[in-house]
Design goal:
Blueprint lengths: L1 H76 L7 H11 L3 E7 L5 E3 L20 H16 L3 H22 L2 H18 L2 H15 L6 H17 L3 H17 L7 H21 L4 H35 L4 H5 L5 E7 L2 E10 L9 E7 L1 H13 L8 E7 L4 E4 L10 E4 L7 E7 L5 H70 L6 H33 L7 E3 L1 H11 L1 H6 L3 E6 L6 E3 L1 H17 L6 E9 L2 E7 L7 H4 L12 H4 L7 H11 L3 E7 L3 E9 L5
Parallel strand pairs: 11-13
Antiparallel strand pairs: 1-2, 1-5, 3-4, 4-5, 6-7, 6-9, 8-9, 10-12, 13-14, 14-16, 15-16
Amino acid sequence: MRKPAFKMAALSRIYLVAIVAIVIPSLVLIYFGYQLIGEMRQLMGERQAKTLRAEVRLKVALIENDIVERERRILDSIALGDPDTAAELAAFEKTERMVEQFFLLDSNFDLVYPQPPRPHAVNAAPPPQIVEKPRIQEIRKQGEHEEFVNKNPRAALTYYLNRLERLKEARLKEATPIKTTAALSDVAGVCFKLGDFEAAVDYYRQLIQCASGGEADPAKLALAKYQMALAQMKLGDTDAAIRTFLDLYDDLVEERLQLKHRLRAQFFKQRTTEDLEELASAHKFTEELSRRYAALKREAQRKEKKKAFLDRLNDYIVVRLRVEDPEAAAEQPGFQHLQEQISGEYVLIAYTFLWPNEFSDGPWLLGFKTDLDFVKDSIIAGYLEQPDTGRGTEISVMDRAGSHLWGAALKPTEEGVVIEEFPSVLQFWKLGIVDRDPNSPLEAARKFSIIYTSLNLLIFLIILVGVALTIKDMKREIEISKLKSDFVSNVSHELKTPLSLIRMYAETLQLGRVQTKQKVQKYYDVIIRESEQLTWLINNVLDFSRIESGRRLYQLRDGDIREVVTETIDAYHYDLDGRGFEVRLNIQPDLPLVPIDRNAISQALMNLLNNAVKYSQDEKVISVDVRQDGTKVLISVSDCGIGISEADQEKIFDIFYRSGDYAVRRTKGTGLGLAIVKHAAEAHNGEVHVQSEKGVGSTFTILLPLDKQT
């Protein structure tokens, strides 16, 4: 009972030594290595950040100095008090790309430039009444009655054409542009309703030409261009329709039509843009039309932004630009700056107080809204988009929240990113920079850290695997040591039993105490049987010794396997009969010669028979079958014994192995028999298989090839 305790104690000492002497020192070395790598990486990062910060500060200063210098040139070029100041400011807006919108306030903070836009009248005055001769007027009314009351556009067209013809005959006095365009509009509209699109296009074109020569109703002109484009689409002339839509869009953007109702202008602009977008998705624009459409969209966006800015000028900006002492503010040179975020949009206002002339009673305020898109795409890009030097530096412009605006999409929290805010002009923006050069010190430290981590993990895994394998081998050695101890005990017992019997029966015979010849013969038979058992046991031990030392040699010669099996069973027959076993031998006739070592095969068969005897139960029947299967000869030994579990079937051929099953443990054995069987089979380039079911029995089969192999 003390041996298992010794085993556990030995394993515990092995585990303790492995942890204390190998695992813990390895972890300590890895930890200090990480500390060193971390310090080196931090030092490299600080050095690189210092270099990048100096670089980004220089760029920030250059960008803001450039903006201030452009503002100074603008200020030097403007002469306030000149009668043409408004025209000069308007010209500057078109030439100076950094200026999105000028504004000029007098000393009372009233808007001088631009002039407040004339509001669209909600109840605008109706267009001038068309006064025609009674006869012409009557014809028009009859046409309208046929078109809208009788729903007879073809009859209405007759009246409208009659009216148009009479206007042409009336010449200059009656045929004014407004009357003619009205008549042409009625004719073209009815032609469109009737599906005569060619005629509609012709009359709409006449209307447009007539309107360009004098006064006309802007709404009728806008409707004429829109309907003309629709008619051209119906005719399949898509390019012509696109051009007409673009002409109308141009007029609406530049406000040439002077539509009095804001909602009417918005309606035509919305319908025109929707139709253009639909055409753009279904029909490929020519390069010329694409450029024109893109330019008009940009101009429309610019004007919308300008209008939105002017709408917010008094509400948001002028309030912030009011100062208690404008005269003192006017003494400050150059432009001051106001940074605001209005409706989610960043707005930069440059402003200054100036006296336009000596007759002014106070300073005026000149300012402009800076075009931040131009600042990003031209000024900032000019300083940040440098020729490829192979450094791998990435630069990003972001807002206060860290959202990306221009350049590389950097994250402020990303390792190695250096952030610098613009100090004065562009306070709502920040500049981020990172060096992704693979040869930079920080990248080198990062790569070294990855390599170090990978190597340490690999080394630690190797150490763990080595420790595990070592512990496994030592456990195996401990188990083998125990098995050898059990083997010595079992062999001693196996040797002691037959020797005791031989000695006892020999002494009885020597003393002459046996009186009958039958009893004498029986004693001699016991002595012979136990001698054979002793010989078999000694041969197994000797074979095991030669196998372990590699000195076991096999002499393969062609032999009669039938003869070997028969002789082996005959030699063991006395012992089998004495134990009450029946052997059923079944050998296939005309078996070919097999290259075998007769002694080895005989001993292997003897071991299988001995196991069948030891582990059989009440039914004492052993079957031995010898047959040919293709290129192999099979020797099978079957019993009706206790059987072998599936878990043990994989281990029973190992040296010294004996199952932990109680039925096996109570039967003495050395654990060598099946190991010798397996070695003998493999020495013949064969195999040994087992089929067994617990409580039913087992069948062991030796497969021997018919051909000699190396």
